[in-house]
Design brief:
Layout lengths: L1 E3 L2 E3 L1 E3 L7 H8 L5 E6 H16 L5 E6 L8 H13 L7 E6 L1 H13 L6 E5 L2 H7 L4 E6 L2 E8 L4 E4 L9 H18 L1 H13 L5 H21 L14 H10 L7 H18 L5 H13 L14 H9 L4 E2 L2 E2 L1 E6 L2 E5 L4 H14 L2
Parallel strand pairs: 3-10, 4-5, 4-6, 6-7, 7-10
Antiparallel strand pairs: 1-2, 8-9, 11-12, 13-14
The structure holds nicotinamide-adenine-dinucleotide and zinc ion (ZN).
Nicotinamide-adenine-dinucleotide binds next to helix 2, helix 4 and helix 5.
Length: 363
């Protein structure tokens, strides 16, 4: 259960969790109609099952299917969903169901926040990243050509249904990218969870079955705790951004191609952990353990050689970070495994040199 300003909402986790979706929606929302938002890839794999299940509600089920991929988090696709909703005659008792990864969740969430000034939203994440991160916490939004997530709203879902059986069709690389955010959750807040991941990774047992479900549960619990304490990001919530300062810089510099978000975050976590050590705020062991765990999960520790990154573009994007303070970005640093801190006033000139050095040496 997540406590948000808008009230509490349940997160249901498990293989087959979606079977409970229609009954839950009928009892808790009793909608006049449903607008299912998904992307083409997810809809072609799982749409038939989702539609069949929603049709049990006996209300009109409309759908808006967008192309798969980050470019769909755009004003254009948002408008297409708005108009689809209006043409379908949605009223305030309509319910939006977001079936897909983080792209669909953010886009459908923002549509739900704005259609008729807000209709109920149910998140049904299908990627590991969306299950452990984007579907929980109520942030929604779209990108502009100027940058990521620049327009959006807080719109908490009424419920999150995390059905791990969707993951059987998720490509392995996408799976690994999701693990990066799970590792992030552990490293910023839960040393015991981090140790469990270390044990699991060395036994190779985590990636499947119960280990996966337990890890999703822990990551969601951590995200829900942090968001519950700081929904609007006054401070604590920012710690969820560990690894994202350089990570977002890399994504922007590469034009959101070449690296998946989770991969960029993995690289960004390596940099931030080393920065903590360099500033004398963390012990070297902290970054060594983090790097070993990321490696065990098949995540990159530096930018792969095949990608050309323009370091100046990375630095420009970092300097424009939404979360910057007066002297450049605020940093989330990890003094020890399981504990994170927000550090302001790290000299920008030193960071620039460190980023240059890191990007040259770590590939
Ligand atoms: N709102 C938040 O708090 C928050 C937090 C983290 C990330 N995000 C956002 O999430 C987005 C990234 O999410 P993502 O990594 O899920 O990307 P995504 O939604 O693009 O999904 C990745 C790819 O996997 C496919 N896919 C999804 N589920 C599948 C399944 N079960 N089987 C086969 N293919 C499947 C999708 O079609 C897509 O091609 C970014 O836009 C990021 O900004 C938001
Ligand atoms: Zn992230």
């Amino acid at each position: 259960v997540v406590r948000a300003a808008a009230g509490e909402y349940p997160i249901l986790i498990g293989a087959g969790a979606c079977r409970r979706l229609p009954a839950w929606i009928r009892e808790q929302i009793s909608p006049s109609s449903v607008l299912l938002v998904s992307d083409r890839r997810v809809f072609s794999l799982h749409g038939r099952r989702a539609m069949a299940s929603l049709e049990r509600l006996d209300v009109p089920i409309h759908r808006a299917i967008v192309p798969a991929g980050e470019p769909s988090k755009s004003p254009r696709q948002l408008e297409s969903i708005w108009r689809r909703g209006v043409q379908a005659g949605l009223d305030r008792r309509a319910c939006v169901v977001a079936l897909g990864g983080g792209v669909v969740g953010d886009l459908a969430g923002f549509a739900a926040a704005t259609i008729l000034r807000g209709v109920p939203l149910v998140q049904v994440p299908t990627s590991l990243l969306a299950m452990v991160d984007s579907s929980v916490g109520g942030k929604t939004g779209i990108n502009l050509p100027e940058g990521k997530n620049l327009v959006g709203a807080f719109h908490a879902p009424r419920a999150v249904f995390i059905d791990t059986s969707f993951l059987t069709s998720l490509p392995r690389r996408q799976m690994r990218a999701g693990w990066a955010e799970i590792i992030k959750a552990a490293v910023i807040r839960d040393a015991a969870f981090f140790r469990a991941l270390e044990r699991g990774a060395s036994h190779g047992a985590l990636a499947a079955g119960r280990g996966l479900e337990a890890a999703i549960r822990s990551a969601c619990r951590i995200k829900a705790e942090v968001v519950g304490l700081d929904e609007r990001e006054a401070g604590l919530r920012m710690t969820l951004n560990f690894g994202h300062t350089l990570g977002h810089g890399l994504e922007a510099a590469l034009g959101y191609r070449g690296l998946l978000h989770g991969e960029a975050v993995a690289i960004g976590m390596v940099f931030a952990a080393r920065l903590g050590v360099a500033l004398g705020l963390a012990r070297p062991e902290t970054s060594a353990r983090l790097e070993a765990l990321l490696r065990a999960f098949g995540l990159p520790l530096g930018v792969p050689r095949r990608l050309r990154v323009d370091v100046s573009k990375v630095l420009d994007a970092m300097a424009r970070d939404k979360k910057r303070g007066r002297e450049g970005p605020r940093w989330v640093l990890v003094p020890e495994i399981g504990r994170s801190e927000i550090v302001e006033g790290v000299p920008w000139a030193g960071v620039r040199a460190a980023v240059r050095h890191f990007l040259q040496e770590s590939r």
